[in-house]
Amino acid sequence: MMASSDVDTRGEGSLFSDQNPSEMDALCPSPPGPSRPQRHYERIGGRTGTSFCQTLIHLLKGNIGTGLLGLPLAVKNAGLVLGPVSLLCMGVIAVHCMRLLVKCSHHLSVKINRPSLTYGEAAQYGMENVSWLRRHSHWGKRTVNLFLIITQLGFCCVYFVFLSDNIKQVVEAANATTFNCQINYTNQTQVLVPSFDSRLYMLCFLPPFILLVFTPNLKYLAPLSLVANLIMTASLILIYFYSLTNIHYPINLPKVGRAKDYPLFFGTAIFAFEGIGVVLPLENKMQRPQSFTLVLYLGMGIVTFLYISLGTIGYMCFGEHIVGSITLNLPNCWTYQAVKLLYCFGIFITFALQFYVPAEILIPPVVARVSERWERPVDLLLRTALVIFTCALAVLIPELDLVISLVGSVSSSFLALIFPPILQVITFHTEGLSPIVTARNAVITLIGLIGFLTGTYIAIVEIVARNAHKSQETFSTYMVQ
């Protein structure tokens, strides 16, 4: 989800600067590294790095977000049996690709005498291993940075839609909200007082988001980020409790979904699993990086278990009524309305962390071109423009499930599935790769490409169809009035 390394605030005038930021850089700065790369995982070293538990927590936080709440609908699209099995396979492939990225980074950093590499730098120096790609190696870094920007701004769009849908639902049900949390017939919050369109809620969130990204240093948000993490954890526990205690028996749900809906499952699943951007920053910041492989396997094992369990349990509980976020299916009682509000607070704070990555890639090179007097105004103006841009995209596509699937298919598939196998091939091609490794990389890359093409196509078709249906309904309502 994030890029890596520290940011040169002045840049070099390039749109995609050499050093890529991540939210970890803001909340967890790197300790001083050695002057030259050292073997045996001693590139950072020292006692100032993050501990095993701290790295594990950061890894979990980097992979658990709104994507988790959309997985019950993803399981519906794939089927009650095929969905969990596909999630398990997706998790295994995602962890394998993360491990490939770390392995390539180690090899290249030693080869070029660097203490550490970012994702983009690994792509650049990997291309330099291939003679006919060497002249264009800088495009490797720029391409990775481009997809990081698309992914992070896509996350920000999802946050706009998520907040507007959940707050709208709480407002509309406010007059009838009680302390009785018994399940209703549709397993869904009842709309009793219709309010204005969700896109107007997005516009209401626009000023607060703009003020939030004006924060000069994300360290100021660290205490709020900790509170947000605790709140979101408590909310997830309550969501699990409700879903587990309200499963209907017998369960008569399709074991395999429709073939045309499976690409939507792929987009949502890869959106949830796209945490590969946090891997290198976390590994570089560890006090004992040799333990990172264990952190990776343990952390992603927990993440995969949460994804499969909530996706399956949520679908079993709400069945065909499940929607883009499981929070929208919770009943009209204050306990679960509070869950929605608290989760929204956590997502609101997280917006600044996700926005940090594209802002620090795009803005410093532009600010570097103006006089010192205009640096701050230009910086704030560009931040405002980026937030308005993400809000505009969300207004154009106010469908939470389809936005998640589209972002996952378009950008997450490249970062999490397509680039790492290609990187391994170009990094180690001079040293020889076994036919099995080459075939495995080809299969993973092919899966990513097929998911990208089919997922993007189906998501766009569904978006167009829903917008046309809504326009027709609005026109019919207007004619009746």
Whole-number mean pLDDT: 84
Helix content: 55-70%
Alpha-carbon distance between the termini?
A: 47 Å
* Apparent shape: globular
- Which class do the helix and strand fractions yield? mainly alpha
Largest sheet: none
Give the SSE order as H and E letters: HHHHHHHHHHHHHHHH
Q: Which assembly state applies to the chains in this document? A: single chain
Please work out how many helical segments DSSP would assign.
16
Total E-strand runs: 0
Low-pLDDT regions: 1-15, 29-47
Residue share in β-strands? under 5%
**Gyration radius over CA:** 23 Å
Give the tags.
about 475 residues; globular; mainly alpha; 16 helices
What does this structure look like?
This protein is mainly α and about 475 residues long. The protein has helices spanning about 25, 50-65, 65-70, 70-80, 80-110, 120-125, 140-170, 200-215, 220-245, 260-275, 280-285, 290-320, 335-365, 375-395, 400-430, 435-480. Helix 4 packs across helix 5 (about 80-110). The longest helix is centred in the C-terminal third of the chain and has 46 residues, at about 435-480. The protein is globular and about 65 Å long.
